Structure to design on (551 residues):
């Protein structure tokens, strides 16, 4: 009883102190891995980021991201990616989106908690992560580990912490920029466009990088995108100057995440166009997935230019394995630098459909702002929130791990997953009548999850109508079969035999079963007559793509 009274007095004193002291209590993130995975399964989301899809919440504040989390999960996104959350060289409060680049010029290796970031505070980041995990959504942080901010160019910003700024061992030659992008030494040892390049082989620099990753993990981050990853050398023997940055930092970060939260973080690195030199891509993919921007660009251009060969590109520009590649329909760089700014949301979503339908590759959807002069922090419901994007995402989640058959026919690029689903894209426009080879899809009746229209698959063809988005996402959600109208003999195919059998029934030469009668009623009027025979004959002759009685 004495100990109980003492504990009560101690608690009372603590509560009184908290009432009168201007203190901030930081909530330590405690979401167990199993809880997040259970939530992901409940919402039909991928548990592994590489298997699912990432929504890049570019310049969204933590609070606005949190407020959109239910919609993000409903849209089928399994992960979000924030803008860089490090303390940067200057305030971003009150800035328009066109000042986004400030976030890529950090001054410190800590989560910005100064009150000068339009993204929010550290506590708001923690709250956003907690909200994401309720839905099974993972949180990726865009991490800047290669460089810091500058003042005017090839100098170190005054805001950079003095422990780094005043230590010459922490920097490469600040007077020189990379000019020859085929020279691996220049790529890794010189500055990128005047940004002061950190000496990532230095133990102090590695320690700062690791501490930042640990802080993010403790706050709720589930993984990272590494900006400018190709500018940080690897420990590969082909490097002109090698270092142990990646194994030292990532192995320790992974060990920390596993011991404190029971998770293995997802890592991917930004590698644009080429590495330079003879270093193989496996020097990176042994530690992380990598961006495949060349392949991504070809697919997008194929969609925009009605080139199904490009739209179906499978060759990886960096030569990475599919399960180590990340595609995007566009990125913040392609958008902000006008490569994709004028590309329509319609074409971006068609690109997304072809990318997200792929097996093994990771995919990122860039949530472009409604306009470049909107304030940093606003979360606009643009292309990412469209019904067709939800249908595509749910298709990917449903067919995870199943085989793929990438095909094309005329203006239609498509991908059959497993033997019971297909995503079709009309690269020439929007609505289109489709009559393409079945490409291994089982015969049957399937529904487009965007329009609700029926597609008929025979042993030879996929036939139906793509709606106004130019995309069809065709499969049956619950796996149940839809009766195949026109298949009178119940062999899961519609051909002249069915028309002949129906004629014999009408002539009372044979008697159809109840199941056959239901599927023979092509016009849906409840009667079997010559009109039904004619419709089946027209379908077989490819004059029509379907029947009125398709549901």
């Amino acid at each position: 009883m004495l100990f109980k009274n003492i504990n009560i007095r101690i608690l009372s004193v603590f509560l009184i102190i908290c009432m009168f002291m201007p203190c901030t209590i930081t909530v330590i993130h405690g979401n167990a891995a199993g809880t997040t995975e259970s939530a992901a399964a409940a919402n039909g989301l991928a548990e592994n980021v590489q298997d699912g899809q990432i929504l890049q919440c570019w310049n969204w504040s933590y609070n606005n991201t949190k407020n959109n989390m239910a919609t993000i999960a409903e849209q089928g996104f399994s992960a979000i990616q924030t803008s860089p959350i490090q303390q940067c060289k200057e305030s971003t409060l009150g800035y328009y989106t066109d000042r986004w680049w400030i976030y890529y010029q950090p001054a410190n290796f800590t989560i910005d908690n100064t009150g000068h970031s339009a993204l929010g505070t550290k506590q708001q980041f923690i709250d956003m992560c907690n909200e994401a995990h309720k839905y099974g959504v993972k949180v990726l942080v865009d991490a800047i580990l290669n460089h810091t901010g500058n003042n005017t160019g090839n100098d170190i910003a005054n805001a950079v912490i003095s422990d780094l700024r005043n230590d010459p061992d922490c920097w490469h030659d600040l007077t020189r920029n990379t000019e020859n992008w085929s020279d691996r030494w220049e790529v890794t040892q010189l500055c990128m466009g005047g940004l002061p390049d950190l000496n990532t082989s230095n133990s102090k620099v590695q320690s700062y990088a690791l501490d930042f990753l640990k802080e993010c993990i403790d706050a709720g981050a589930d993984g990272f995108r590494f900006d400018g990853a190709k500018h940080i050398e690897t420990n590969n023997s082909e490097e002109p100057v090698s270092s142990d940055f990646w194994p030292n930092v990532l192995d320790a970060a992974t060990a920390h995440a596993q011991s404190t939260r029971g998770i293995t973080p997802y890592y991917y690195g930004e590698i644009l166009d080429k590495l330079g030199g003879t270093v193989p891509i496996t020097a990176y993919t042994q530690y992380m997935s990598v961006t495949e921007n060349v392949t991504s660009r070809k697919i997008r251009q194929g969609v925009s230019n009605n080139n199904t060969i490009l739209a179906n590109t499978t060759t990886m520009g960096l030569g990475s394995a599919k399960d180590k590649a990340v595609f995007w329909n566009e990125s913040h760089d392609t958008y902000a630098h006008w490569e994709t700014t004028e590309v329509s949301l319609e074409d971006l979503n068609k690109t997304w459909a072809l990318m997200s339908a792929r097996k093994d590759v990771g995919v990122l959807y860039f949530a472009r702002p409604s306009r470049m002069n909107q304030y940093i922090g606003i979360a606009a419901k643009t292309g990412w929130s469209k019904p067709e994007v939800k249908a595509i995402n749910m298709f990917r989640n449903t067919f995870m791990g199943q085989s793929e058959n990438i095909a094309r026919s005329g203006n239609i690029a498509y991908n059959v997953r497993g033997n019971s689903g297909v995503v079709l894209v009309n690269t020439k426009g929007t609505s289109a009548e489709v009559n393409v080879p079945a490409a291994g899809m089982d015969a049957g009746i399937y529904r487009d999850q965007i329009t609700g229209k029926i597609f008929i698959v025979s042993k030879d063809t996929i036939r139906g109508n793509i709606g106004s988005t130019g995309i069809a996402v065709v499969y049956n959600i619950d796996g149940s079969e839809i009766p195949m109208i026109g298949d009178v003999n119940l062999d899961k195919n519609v051909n002249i035999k069915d028309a002949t059998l129906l004629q014999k029934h009408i002539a009372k030469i044979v008697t159809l079963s109840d199941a056959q009668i239901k599927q023979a009623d092509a016009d849906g009027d409840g009667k079997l007559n010559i009109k039904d025979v004619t419709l089946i004959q027209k379908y077989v002759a490819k004059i029509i793509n379907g029947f009125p009685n398709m549901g």
Confidence is low (pLDDT under 50) at residues 1-30. The two ends are 73 Å apart (CA to CA). Residues 483-551 form a domain with the Type 1 dockerin domain fold (CATH 1.10.1330.10).
